[in-house]
Structure formats: structure tokens, C-alpha cells
Q: What sequence folds into this?
């Protein structure tokens, strides 16, 4: 049969010679590998005292972004939801009323925006598909919770705080 | 040299009255025509080999022959004179209408007789205020003298005539857009077929001819086809043609000359050559929507076939001369701005393509151009080729641009490289 | 111009196809399934050649290797036509054209409501244009307020001119136009304001991009791919236009046209499109309840069924009141439950008699009633007494198309092809063929009428009978009264001259004689060898169906209750206070002692009910309704509500189960029972595939393949994902899993095809563009004329109207927004309801020393109504017009004699 790649190697089935039969060289070779690892960098971390450095492309918990003037960027176009392979995002759109221009950047906004973090696979497609630079995956994990309900992240959890008044969320909890 | 169309026009610029016109043989053609059958009149025009003077050069007699003439033909039929002369550089119809409006009216009545039309309109450019006044008076005189209305000149033929001054769109020069404007609709062109000869003004058979074309008709009927054919220097068609020259020449003007004089003769003899210090570089032979002709084409005979062979069109026969001290990019920009402004907005290439072209040319002319924009311009000339658009406006607009890109490419590139207009 | 069945061989990219000769080339290419881009062409409005998007290379013959670029929409497919769609030059041109359109089109698809179902998006992808070379600023426009239905965003416009062509040329609108020129062209109103035309909502579908979008949808916006949709039938008038109803998060989000080549074609009216908001109303009844005088106690379904069994069905004489807005199945189940003798149709005698009369004429008469679409093929029309624009709006649109037929023949004679829309219109110059109106007052169709006359209802009937005499006279003597210019003579002459004359009438004036006169005219035309048609508009969506099931009417029930023969009543989806006078309704409900109401919205009847069961509207129910043509059509439940709302027949089935143990398994079982009892309804079985239908092994999904958020939508209520609801009543599923191709025509839940996300994908569901859907258009006609004409001519039995001193005959005036019972409960539509008024002739006003806007008091049957007057000089003297169905006039039984006094 033809091999699928050019990397296949035929198995060496010759009978072992004396040198090989005493196994000593192989044992020494193996101990050498063990020894080498003693001086290598450790693969584990003493979490939580130590934290693991993230790769620059790490994808963690989502945030909903605001623009320079503090307005919500999300226009509830639904592209993140449709791109989501886990179907973990849902939203309801609402129309911006006159006088709300300082709250919402576009003429429509997400009145409700929810991510089911239990379903989310953190693939980042939502971030990639967002035409308004509204959703980003940050470097934090979704924290543990006692209830599964706690993993349904609404807009109040996702939206970054209003820049100037940091402790006052602009949106009310539904 | 005979100049049947313009010889009676007074040099002082005043109008020829009905009396004066009749005194020099006016309305003789009409009287002769009314004694003939409509078919004979049409045949005579066919034999004269008169080709439309509006720009396309379509044989007039053939155009008429498409009008249904049987007993069941729909009525009223219409006849319309296209005097919406808005082609940049062109002013021949104005000379004719202002100088001798009766010649036009007589031509229209004869033509109306040939197709048995009932109602006629003179569609005049909005800016021609003086011409409009004079036509109004002339129509009134013609009614008074019995050349219009019921039982014209004692015959059974009847014809009404109205003057319509348009609100001024270049688009109205296109015959179907003109008909829409005349109906009070948006001046958008119509699809052809059906041609206006079958379904034209108010859905009825209609003939639209250029003012200059109608001016030829009385002379053909009056003096015969052989005489008329002999006026021309070209095998291409009979009669004389109003040629004009504008630009930096010594004597820009308009002359009635035999069809088929050469471009060199026009510029050097009649227009007196270039002004001192200016050198001929190129010319648009027939108004703004024709391709440039360069020095090598100076000996081309100005008729329909030969100009076509040289890669342009005779159009209206009014030459615009480009000299060496004028920026060709600026000139093309000026033209494209005009065409972009005058697009009716009906079909996509013209509506969107022309303004884009103008914006790009504006960027190039003002030193903001980029090399890839020349590719876009070349693409636009193909994109707006004849047949790709609804009417001939955009293809016409592309003609000076495509020839400019051919002959003056270096100038375009200099603009882009130097980030300014070298002529500034 | 009927296209013959002559076939032509054409070559597309060197492959031979056989197509109907003379058809439009673009249409042919789309019918053959090619992906050819276009904008300005529309299957119902044909070609004008403006957008230049459908360019293909046309070759003279097989030796012509160069060819030239032509617009396929402006060419006919004739024998030997050779074109190439894929030629690089054609592709480059089409991509270049999109590039030109994109110069000024904003890149705001995420914000745009059209995004995801945008024809421009589809065409851009199809053309291959993807890189923007334009470096200049885009032009911008101001937007206009266009009323509660339509949102305007001019910056997105690509100037295809479809909106004005539809609005003005097709639908007869006057207040939308195109302004300015070159790349500054603007489509809008002369000044801001409400778009007046009754069909303005179609702009949403006609516009290839997001210039005109659905303002009502915008209030609860959802992308097309996120909607759960089901094929449905509009319940807002008797025509039964096919619609697509869509839901998300338990609320109806929007309604779109569902193409039906026999009924509504590509369009629906604004009442149908925007009149659904009542389904989301906070007045909805969502839970069974038990009501006492001053309290209401919610019940679970089990408790409700138990209570109903104990306290209603323990009674002896139980009667049922059906409804013309409930499905055939719901009416049937109620009849089954209470028994043959105890079921009554839910409309007063006067109305019931009219509908039965219409049924007998259509069934036993010899003249065919055409389908709504067929109406467009008639070439002379007489309308008797019906304000169709307001009582059956889409019929008015069809009449407007039919009016174009005769003048168009002249254009076709000039060899102008049918599809060359602009040329045909130029040739026709706005002329209309013979359309005669004989109504009580000025109606909107007057503007296309050859002649419109106004008369009292009885006089309309008398004139109708006179027209029959004229027809007989004209046909008997070859040189009859040819010269007479009288109305009747011109009508008779033009009807006889036409190839296909059509008589339209209806029940709106509650006048039997008008209906009979209309039938007589149609019969006499038929007797003169004409291919005549006869259309009646009836009051409600299932007036015909309910009346086919039951002869008895509401008045019979009221009489029986008065005599003490009723112990309990079950009312299915019927507000009696909308049907009869308040006092009568009050007495009736009191006489019935125990009242069970199945209803979807709270109303006066439900306040009097002992038990209320939440019935689904057309959105939560499945059923069959019969339209004015006698066409039975199926509508499907759109979504499974999270509450107890369900089809009335389902409730009644459950009640029957609880009392007698007889249980119909599902919807199909109910239909089977029904047709067994009523063999004349046998065809209802074949209206749509039954619930066992599978395409392969699959059901038809109500959700698109891209439906999003399934694991998140309900996670805030319960993280555990519930089992998807199962639909045992139809071949449709509530999920996105299932058959992805073209379903059977009655079961199309949405239109989509690869590469075609907009409504233009309808092309792929038709056998040919503008033709029937694959598998035939949905709906089955239950009424066909009989050849024997059992019905025969009617005798004239009316007398001429004579006015009474000091009294006025008050007749109903209809309003598209206002006269319908349910649609007015939606906020958008409610904005369009005019203030209530009473219309009278100006001379009558003068006599009474009244002027426009004065308040009067009208007295009738011990009732008083204070109202402002409006002059309507076309209304005959001695007659007054009062809007029907308005809040102030609900339950009034028209016509009536009233005394009028100035306040």
C-alpha cells in the first residue's frame, strides 16, 4: 500500500545483537533524559500564588466595548450570534430614541445581550465578526460560580464601565 | 459658394420678418410641396441624401419613412424641432433661429406635410430668450399669413405649431428625453425600440429633427435634389453644413460651408489660424462629446464617414481647438464636470460613473491624483461604452476622455508625479 | 399579449435551452436558474433598463465570437438567441456596475434593517465586486418621516426607480416621487408626511436595499435568519392573501408577502402587513380563568377543563356560537361539541343571509368567480356598491391592473413587448379601460373610473337591474341604443364589447338586491357568450367557511335564549358586542346564564364570561379558512407559546375528551372528522400535506439554517436546554433541522435559496418567474359554478329609495384602518385611523344649518351618538355615512334610520 505521507518509516524488525540485549546503554540513555529535565524550566505553576503568562492571542471572557465618548458600540446587528458555533449568544435589538445619542453610538442598540458562558467555546468568532469593534475577548477567565445560572452573562456583566464615572454603571440591571 | 441657409440672415443681427423672407423666395418650397403628394415630398428628401444635423447623421428621409402612413395610422402625429442646443461649443441653431425663424417654420410645415402631422412643437433651449421672442413672433406671423392653422396656403393640410422653451437640461437634446420633457415628465430618455416614429410624443407617431435639418428642407423642395447634392463636397450627404470654430483662434465664428471641407481649411482659412503665441495641439471636431483629433488629422474632410475613420465623430460640426498653453486635463475635467452635472440620473453608469470620473479628474488636475486612478479612468471609458448605458450621453462624455488618455497620457502622468498642474 | 406556447431554442454559454418564444431574456435566465444580477427589473413590474445590472454578451450567431454587451432585461428570447452570462467582459461590466452603485452606498449593513435579506448584498456578492477603489466622500441626503409604517433612509438608495414605479404606476399612489437629477436623485415625498397609499408597505419588499424598511419591525427588530416563520393567511379581510408570519422571543415580529400566483401575487396591503400588532398586545388572554362578578381567578389547563366540564357541561341546553374569524376546524369542533341543533353562526341574520346568498350564487349560478390574481386579466369592470379599497384592498389593486388591459392591447399591437414596461406606459399614456363604479359615495377607485355614479343602496340595485335590461336590449337589436350616453347604456355597451367583463360587488351595504343585481348582470353577460366573472367581497376572513358549515345565525340564538331555551353558551373567538347592539348582547349573555368564551383578546364579551380559555390568533393556531372566492387555505401555527394559548379547535377537542372521552389525535384527525360529516368540504383535506408528510425523512423547518442563539435564548429562564417543541399538527417543525430544499407550496415558511437571501429568492420557488409555485399554487377552490344555473335570474324586488323628512338613512362607511375588528388594536395601525365623523351631503347640511366640523347628535333605537359632521357631496341627499367598526360605532347594525339634531 502506498504511504499517505513521505514521513513513514519502516519498522526495524532485525533481531537484537548482544550490545542491545544487555539493555544498559538504553537505560543510561533514558536516565540522561530524566537528568536533562531536572535543569529545564518547570511546566507547572504554583497557582494562585503564581499566574501563568498568557499567550498574546489568548481568548478569555468577553466584554462589550464603548467608543471614545463612552457610547455603547454594539448595534445589535446579530452577526456575533450567527457566527457563534455554540449558539451561545442572543440579543434583542431596540431603537435609539431621540436624546439617547450620548448612550448609544448607532441608531439601534442591544436592549438585551446575553452569552451563555457554559456553552461558549471561546473561539473568538464573535470578536472577529463584529463590524463595530464592540465585542472583545479579554485575558480573564469566566470565574467559578455555585450556580449554573451565574454563567449567563447579561449586558450588565459584559459592558465595560462608563469611563469617567467608573463606579456607576450606565445601564440598569433588567 | 452658395449659402442657402444663412445668405439671407442680416448682418446687423436683426430678424428676418415674414415679408422680407417671402421677398427672398420664402415659403416657395412650401407651396411647391403642397402641390406634391406627401410621398413625393418624402421621396425628394430621401433623394437629397440629407443627413440629420443634430450629431448622429441619420438620413432624414429614412427616419421619416418609419412613420405609419396608412389610413389607420394613429393621429395626432407630431413633429418636433429640437432646438435644445446645449452642447458645449455649439451655437449653430441659435444663429439660424435668431436670424431666420421662418426658414425653420417653413421646413417644419413641409416636413409635417410629408408625414401628415397634425401638431408641431419647436423645443427651444431655455437660455435662448431672444430666439424664443423671435420664434413667437414668427409663428404668429405665419398663422396670420395662413401658413399655419387650417387649410394651409389653400390646401387641405392643417398644422398647429407651438413654441416650448425648456427649463434647461442638456439631457433634453436626446430626442426621447425631449419628448418626456415636452409631456411634462422627467427628462429621462426612453427605451428604443419603440422608436418615436411609432410611439413618440403622448404615445403617438412623432418625428424629432434638429433645427438645422429642418432649415434645409425648404431649399431641397424649392431647388431640387440635384442642386442640393451639388452643394456638398462629400459623397457622404447633400447640402451645406454650418461649421464653427472656437478656442484660441484668431476669428472664432460660424460659417455655412459645403459639407466635407477639411479641418485645416476651417481652422487656417476661415478661423484665421491660431492666435499669436499659441500652437495647435488638438481639436474636438463636433462639440464636447467627440474624440480629439490631432495634427495628423488636420486634412481630414469634415463629413460623417471621414471623421469616423479618423477615430472621432463629426457631431454638430463645431470645432473646439486645444492649444499648447491650455492644460488638456483641465479641459477634459471641465467637460466631464458638465456631463456629470447634466446626467439625468436614470441609468447607473452615467449617474454614478460620470461624477466619479469628474472627481478623479479633479483630483489629478489639482495634484491629488494617484497612478491607479488612470486605470480607473480607462476602465470607466470601457464601462460607459456605447450600448452599456441607456442613452448616448455617457458614451459621448467618454469620447474626449478616452482620446485624451490616448494622446495626452504623459500630461496626466506629469500631473500625478508633480502633484500639481504643470500649466498653473 | 398572451404568450403562445411556441418554444424557442436559445443558447446560454453554448448550452441549448428551450424557452417560451418572445419572453424576456432576463426572466428566462432566472427561470432557468442562472445567477444573473438585476435591480430595476421586478417580476410584477417588468423591465425599464435603468440599472444596467443584467448585462450579458449577445452573439449574432455561432460564428460571432465577439458579440456585444446587451441588457438581458431589454431583450426578448427568440429562436437562436445566443448569449453568454459568464463571458469575462460581461462579468467585469456587472462588477463595475456594482462598484458604481457602491460609490455612494453606505457601508452600514450592521445597522441597516435590510442586512441579511438585502438584494444589493446578494447581487454584490454575485457580481464578484469586493474591493473599494473610490477614495472620495459619499453623497448624503436628509431622510423623511413617512408615517408609522415605513422608515426612510435615502443614503442607502441605489436609484433603481422601483419604488416610484410600484407606488405610482402599479398602485396608483400620488405622494411619492423622484426629485433632482444626476447622482443626487432623491426618492421621497414633496414634504414630510404619511405615505397615503394603502399598499405602501410593499415598498419594503420592492426596495432592493434598505431605503424603505418596516418601521413596525424596527420596534422589535430581528434579523431574517433569527425569525421563526410559518406560512399563514391574512385574517384582516375576506380575500385571504397569503402571508409569512415570523416570530422571535414569543412575539410576532413582522409579516411578509407569501407569493401565491393565484391570490395575492407579490404584494399585500398595509392592513395585512402592519395589522398584526394585536397579537403582541397586553390585552392578550394567556391563561384560562374563572370569572365572577368582580374577580378573576387564573386556572391551570387541567383545572379549567375540569371546571368547564362540571359547571358548563352539567347544564342541559348548551349552545355554541361560531365565528367568521375562527377557522373551519374551530367552528366544526364547536358544532360537534354542542350538537348539530345547538350551533349558530356568529353573525347576525342580515349578514348571514347575504353570505349564504353569495355562496348559493357562486355555487349554483353559472358564472365563475375568478381568483384575486385572475381579476387582473379582465378587461371591463363594473363595481356595484362596494368601496373595495377599504373593504378588500388587494381587490382594488387588482382592479387597477385590470384597468390597464384594454389600452395596453393597442401598445401590443405596435409590437411593443409586454415586458417593456416603460415603453408600454408611454404608449398607453395613463389611459384606463372601462371601469364603472356605482357606489354610495366617492371612493378612491373613482380616479381610474370611466364613469362613477353615486346612489342610495336600493337605487344601486335598481340601476343594476336596468343594466341587465340594457344588455338584453343591446344584444337583441344589432342597432340598439348605441348613441345613448346614459350610465346604464355605456356600462352595458362596454361590458358587451369586452372580452372578459367582470362584475364586482359585496356585502358591505347589507343589501341583498345589490348582490342579486350583480349576479343578474353577470348571468346576462354569460348568456351573451361573454367569459364573464363575478366577484363578491364578504365581511371577514372565514365568513364563507363558517357559513358553509352552518345555516343558523346569531339572531336565531338570541331568539332561542330569549325564550329561555339556553342554559349555557360557548362562544368561539367572537365579540358579540362587535356584532350586535349592546343591549341585545347584554340580554343575550344574561339569558344564557353560563358563558364560556374562547378568545384571544380581552373584549366586552370576555368581561361577561364565566370561563375564558385563551385561544390563539392566526399566529398561534393552525387551521383552514375559506376566502371570498371559496378557496380553502391553510394557515399554520408560527411558534409554540410559553403559555396556554392554543387553537380553539384544540381546546374544544380537549373539552370533548374530558366529557366524552372522544379525542381527535391531531389536526388531521379533526379535518377527517369534518369532511366525513360534510362531504362538500372534502377538498379541504387536499389543501395542504398532512402532518405525516415528510420530505425524505424530514419535516420542514420553520427556522432558517442560520438561526442563532438557541443555547442562550432561554438560558436566563432555565440553563438546561428544553426539548424542542413538537408539532403534531403539521409537516413543519419548530426547529431549524429538516428539509432544506423547496417544500410543497402550501408549506413554504420562508423564501431563501443559496446566494439569494432577499425576497427575490421567490424566483427559485416558481416553475417560471411570475408563474405558479412548484407543485401548484396553494389553496383549493370549494365553489365552482354549475352549468345548469340552478340559481336562475333574480326578480327585482326593491323599491326606489325615498328620503324621509327629518330622518336619515345611515349607511356604513368603511376604512381600511379602523373598520376591522382586530387590526385596529395595534399601535401603528391605530395611528392611521381617522377621527370618527358622520358624512352627509352638503345640501342636507345647509338645510340643517350645519357646517363641517359641527357636532350633532344622532338618535336611533333608543341610542344616542354625538359626533362631528363632514360634508360628502357625492353622497345622495337623505343618506348619512358613519364609519363602521370604530370605537364609537362598534356594534351598530347598519343601515338604520336615525334622527339628527344639532348640539
A:
Amino acid at each position: 500500500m502506498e504511504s499517505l505521507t513521505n514521513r513513514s518509516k519502516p519498522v526495524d524488525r532485525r533481531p537484537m545483537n548482544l550490545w542491545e540485549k544487555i539493555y544498559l546503554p538504553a537505560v543510561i540513555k533514558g536516565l540522561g533524559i530524566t537528568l536533562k529535565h531536572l535543569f529545564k524550566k518547570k511546566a507547572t505553576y504554583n497557582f494562585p500564588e503564581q499566574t501563568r503568562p498568557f499567550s498574546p492571542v489568548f481568548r478569555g471572557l468577553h466584554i462589550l466595548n464603548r467608543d471614545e465618548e463612552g457610547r455603547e458600540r454594539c448595534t445589535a446587528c446579530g452577526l456575533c450570534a450567527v457566527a457563534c458555533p455554540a449558539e451561545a449568544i442572543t440579543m434583542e435589538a431596540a431603537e435609539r430614541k431621540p436624546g439617547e445619542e450620548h448612550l448609544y453610538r448607532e441608531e439601534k442598540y442591544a436592549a438585551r445581550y446575553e452569552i451563555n458562558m457554559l456553552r461558549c467555546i471561546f473561539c473568538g468568532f464573535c470578536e472577529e465578526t463584529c463590524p463595530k469593534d464592540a465585542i472583545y475577548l479579554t485575558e480573564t477567565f469566566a470565574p467559578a460560580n455555585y450556580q449554573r445560572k451565574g454563567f449567563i452573562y447579561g449586558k450588565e456583566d459584559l459592558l465595560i464601565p462608563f469611563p469617567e464615572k467608573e463606579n456607576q454603571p450606565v445601564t440598569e440591571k433588567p | 459658394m452658395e449659402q442657402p441657409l444663412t445668405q439671407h440672415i442680416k448682418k446687423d443681427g436683426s430678424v428676418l420678418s415674414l415679408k422680407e423672407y417671402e421677398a427672398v423666395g420664402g415659403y416657395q418650397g412650401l407651396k411647391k410641396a403642397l402641390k406634391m403628394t406627401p410621398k413625393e415630398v418624402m421621396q425628394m428628401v430621401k433623394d437629397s441624401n440629407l443627413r440629420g444635423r443634430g450629431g448622429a447623421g441619420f438620413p432624414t428621409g429614412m427616419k421619416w419613412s418609419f412613420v405609419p402612413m396608412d389610413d389607420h395610422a394613429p393621429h395626432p402625429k407630431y413633429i418636433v424641432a429640437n432646438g435644445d442646443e446645449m452642447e458645449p461649443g455649439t451655437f449653430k441653431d441659435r444663429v439660424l433661429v435668431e436670424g431666420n425663424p421662418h426658414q425653420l417654420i417653413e421646413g417644419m410645415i413641409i416636413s409635417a406635410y410629408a408625414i401628415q402631422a397634425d401638431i408641431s412643437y419647436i423645443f427651444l433651449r431655455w437660455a435662448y430668450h431672444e430666439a424664443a421672442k423671435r420664434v413667437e413672433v414668427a409663428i404668429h406671423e405665419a398663422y396670420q399669413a395662413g401658413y399655419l392653422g387650417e387649410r394651409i396656403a389653400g390646401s387641405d393640410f392643417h398644422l398647429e405649431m407651438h413654441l416650448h422653451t425648456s427649463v434647461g437640461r442638456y439631457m433634453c437634446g436626446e430626442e426621447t428625453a425631449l419628448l418626456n420633457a415636452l409631456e411634462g415628465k422627467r427628462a429621462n430618455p426612453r427605451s428604443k425600440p419603440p422608436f418615436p416614429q411609432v410611439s413618440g410624443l403622448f404615445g403617438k407617431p412623432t418625428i424629432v429633427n434638429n433645427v438645422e435639418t429642418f432649415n434645409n428642407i425648404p431649399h431641397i423642395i424649392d431647388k431640387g435634389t440635384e442642386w442640393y447634392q451639388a452643394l456638398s463636397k462629400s459623397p457622404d450627404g447633400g447640402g451645406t453644413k454650418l461649421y464653427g470654430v472656437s478656442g484660441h483662434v484668431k476669428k472664432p465664428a460660424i460659417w455655412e460651408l459645403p459639407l466635407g471641407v477639411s479641418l485645416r481649411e476651417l481652422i487656417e482659412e476661415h478661423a484665421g489660424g491660431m492666435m499669436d503665441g499659441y500652437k495647435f495641439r488638438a481639436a474636438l471636431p463636433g462639440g464636447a462629446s467627440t474624440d480629439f483629433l490631432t495634427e495628423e488629422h488636420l486634412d481630414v474632410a469634415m463629413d460623417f464617414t471621414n471623421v469616423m475613420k479618423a477615430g472621432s465623430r463629426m457631431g454638430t460640426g463645431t470645432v473646439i481647438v486645444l492649444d499648447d498653453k491650455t492644460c488638456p486635463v483641465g479641459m477634459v475635467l471641465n467637460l466631464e464636470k458638465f456631463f456629470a452635472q447634466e446626467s439625468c440620473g436614470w441609468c447607473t453608469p452615467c449617474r454614478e460613473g460620470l461624477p466619479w470620473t469628474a472627481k478623479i479628474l479633479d483630483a489629478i488636475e489639482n495634484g491629488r491624483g494617484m497612478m491607479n486612478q488612470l486605470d480607473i479612468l480607462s476602465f470607466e471609458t470601457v464601462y460607459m461604452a456605447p450600448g452599456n448605458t441607456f442613452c448616448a450621453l455617457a458614451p459621448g462624455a467618454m469620447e474626449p476622455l478616452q482620446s485624451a488618455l490616448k494622446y495626452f497620457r504623459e500630461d496626466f502622468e506629469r500631473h500625478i508625479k508633480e502633484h500639481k498642474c504643470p500649466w498653473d | 399579449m398572451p404568450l403562445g406556447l411556441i418554444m424557442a431554442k436559445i443558447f446560454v454559454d453554448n448550452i441549448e435551452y428551450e424557452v417560451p418564444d418572445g419572453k424576456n431574456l432576463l426572466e428566462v435566465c432566472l427561470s432557468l436558474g442562472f445567477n444573473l444580477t438585476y435591480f430595476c427589473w421586478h417580476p410584477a413590474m417588468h423591465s425599464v433598463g435603468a440599472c444596467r445590472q443584467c448585462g450579458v454578451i449577445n452573439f449574432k450567431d455561432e460564428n460571432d465570437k465577439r458579440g456585444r454587451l446587451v441588457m438581458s432585461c431589454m431583450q426578448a428570447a427568440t429562436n437562436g438567441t445566443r448569449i453568454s452570462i459568464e463571458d469575462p467582459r460581461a462579468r467585469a461590466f456587472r462588477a463595475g456596475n456594482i462598484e458604481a452603485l457602491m460609490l455612494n452606498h453606505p457601508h452600514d449593513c450592521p445597522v441597516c434593517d435590510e442586512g441579511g435579506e438585502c438584494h444589493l448584498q446578494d447581487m454584490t456578492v454575485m457580481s464578484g465586486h469586493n474591493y473599494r477603489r473610490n477614495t472620495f466622500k459619499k453623497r448624503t441626503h436628509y431622510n423623511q418621516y413617512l408615517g408609522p409604517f415605513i422608515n426612510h433612509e435615502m443614503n442607502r438608495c441605489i436609484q433603481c426607480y422601483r419604488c416610484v414605479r410600484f407606488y405610482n404606476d402599479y398602485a396608483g399612489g400620488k405622494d411619492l416621487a423622484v426629485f433632482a437629477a444626476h447622482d443626487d436623485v432623491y426618492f421621497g415625498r414633496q414634504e414630510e408626511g404619511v405615505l397615503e397609499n394603502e399598499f405602501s408597505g410593499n415598498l419594503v419588499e420592492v426596495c432592493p436595499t434598505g431605503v424603505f424598511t418596516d418601521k413596525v419591525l424596527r420596534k422589535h427588530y430581528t434579523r431574517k435568519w433569527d425569525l421563526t416563520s410559518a406560512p399563514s393567511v391574512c385574517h384582516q379581510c375576506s380575500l385571504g392573501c397569503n402571508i409569512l408570519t415570523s416570530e422571535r422571543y414569543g412575539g410576532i415580529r413582522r409579516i411578509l408577502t407569501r407569493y401565491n400566483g393565484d391570490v395575492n401575487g407579490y404584494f399585500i396591503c398595509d392592513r395585512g402587513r402592519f395589522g398584526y400588532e394585536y397579537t403582541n398586545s397586553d390585552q392578550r388572554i394567556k391563561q384560562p380563568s374563572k370569572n365572577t362578578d368582580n374577580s378573576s381567578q387564573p386556572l391551570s389547563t387541567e383545572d379549567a377543563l375540569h371546571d368547564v366540564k362540571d359547571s358548563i357541561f352539567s347544564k342541559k341546553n348548551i349552545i355554541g356560537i361560531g365565528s367568521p374569524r375562527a377557522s373551519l376546524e374551530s367552528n366544526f369542533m364547536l358544532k360537534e361539541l354542542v350538537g348539530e341543533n345547538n350551533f349558530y353562526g356568529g353573525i347576525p341574520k342580515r349578514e348571514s343571509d347575504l353570505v349564504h346568498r353569495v355562496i348559493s350564487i357562486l355555487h349554483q349560478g353559472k358564472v365563475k368567480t375568478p381568483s384575486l390574481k385572475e381579476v387582473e386579466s379582465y378587461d371591463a369592470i363594473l363595481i356595484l356598491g362596494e368601496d373595495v379599497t377599504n373593504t378588500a384592498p388587494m381587490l382594488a389593486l387588482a382592479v387597477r391592473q385590470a384597468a390597464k388591459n384594454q389600452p395596453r392591447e393597442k401598445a401590443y399591437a405596435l409590437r411593443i413587448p409586454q415586458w417593456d414596461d416603460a415603453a408600454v406606459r408611454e404608449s398607453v399614456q395613463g389611459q384606463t379601460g372601462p371601469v364603472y363604479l356605482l357606489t354610495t359615495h366617492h371612493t378612491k377607485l373613482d380616479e381610474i373610473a370611466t364613469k362613477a355614479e353615486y346612489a342610495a343602496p336600493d337605487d344601486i340595485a335598481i340601476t343594476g337591474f336596468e343594466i341587465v335590461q340594457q344588455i338584453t336590449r343591446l344584444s337583441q337589436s344589432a342597432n340598439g341604443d348605441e348613441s345613448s350616453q346614459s350610465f346604464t347604456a355605456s356600462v352595458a355597451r362596454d361590458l358587451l364589447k369586452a372580452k372578459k367583463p367582470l362584475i364586482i360587488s359585496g356585502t358591505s351595504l347589507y343589501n341583498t338586491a345589490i348582490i342579486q343585481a350583480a349576479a343578474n348582470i353577470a348571468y346576462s353577460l354569460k348568456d351573451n357568450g361573454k367569459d364573464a366573472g363575478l366577484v363578491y367581497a364578504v365581511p371577514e376572513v372565514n365568513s364563507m367557511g363558517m357559513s358553509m358549515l352552518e345555516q343558523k345565525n346569531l339572531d336565531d340564538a338570541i331568539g332561542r335564549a330569549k325564550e329561555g331555551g339556553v342554559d349555557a353558551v360557548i362562544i368561539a373567538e367572537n365579540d358579540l358586542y362587535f356584532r350586535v347592539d349592546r343591549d341585545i348582547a347584554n340580554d343575550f349573555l344574561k339569558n344564557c346564564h353560563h358563558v364560556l368564551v374562547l378568545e384571544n383578546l380581552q373584549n366586552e364579551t370576555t368581561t361577561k364570561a364565566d370561563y375564558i380559555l385563551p385561544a390563539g390568533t392566526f399566529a398561534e393556531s393552525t387551521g383552514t379558512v375559506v376566502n371570498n372566492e371559496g378557496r380553502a387555505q391553510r394557515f399554520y401555527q408560527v411558534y409554540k407559546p410559553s403559555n396556554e394559548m392554543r387553537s380553539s379547535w384544540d381546546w374544544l377537542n380537549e373539552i370533548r375528551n374530558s366529557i366524552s372521552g372522544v379525542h381527535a389525535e391531531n389536526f388531521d384527525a379533526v379535518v377527517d372528522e369534518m369532511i366525513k360529516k360534510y362531504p362538500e368540504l372534502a377538498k379541504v383535506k387536499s389543501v395542504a400535506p398532512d402532518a405525516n408528510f415528510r420530505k425524505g425523512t424530514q419535516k420542514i423547518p420553520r427556522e432558517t439554517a442560520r438561526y442563532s442563539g438557541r443555547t442562550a435564548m432561554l438560558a436566563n429562564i432555565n440553563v438546561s436546554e428544553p426539548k424542542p417543541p413538537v408539532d403534531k399538527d403539521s409537516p413543519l417543525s419548530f426547529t431549524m433541522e429538516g428539509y432544506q430544499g423547496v417544500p410543497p407550496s402550501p408549506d413554504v415558511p420562508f423564501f431563501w435559496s443559496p446566494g439569494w437571501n432577499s425576497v427575490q429568492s421567490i424566483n427559485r420557488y416558481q416553475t417560471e418567474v411570475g408563474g405558479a409555485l412548484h407543485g401548484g399554487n396553494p389553496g383549493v377552490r370549494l365553489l365552482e359554478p354549475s352549468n345548469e344555473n340552478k340559481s336562475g335570474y333574480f326578480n327585482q324586488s326593491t323599491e326606489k329609495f325615498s328620503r324621509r323628512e327629518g330622518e336619515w338613512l345611515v349607511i356604513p362607511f368603511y376604512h381600511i384602518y379602523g373598520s376591522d375588528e382586530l387590526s385596529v388594536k395595534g399601535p401603528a395601525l391605530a395611528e392611521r385611523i381617522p377621527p370618527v365623523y358622520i358624512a352627509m351631503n352638503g345640501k342636507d347640511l345647509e338645510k340643517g344649518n350645519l357646517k363641517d366640523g359641527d357636532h350633532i347628535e344622532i338618535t336611533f333605537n333608543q341610542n344616542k351618538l354625538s359626533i362631528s359632521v363632514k360634508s360628502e357631496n357625492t353622497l345622495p341627499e337623505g343618506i348619512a355615512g358613519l364609519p363602521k367598526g370604530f370605537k364609537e360605532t362598534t356594534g351598530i347594525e347598519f343601515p338604520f334610520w336615525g334622527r339628527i339634531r344639532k348640539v
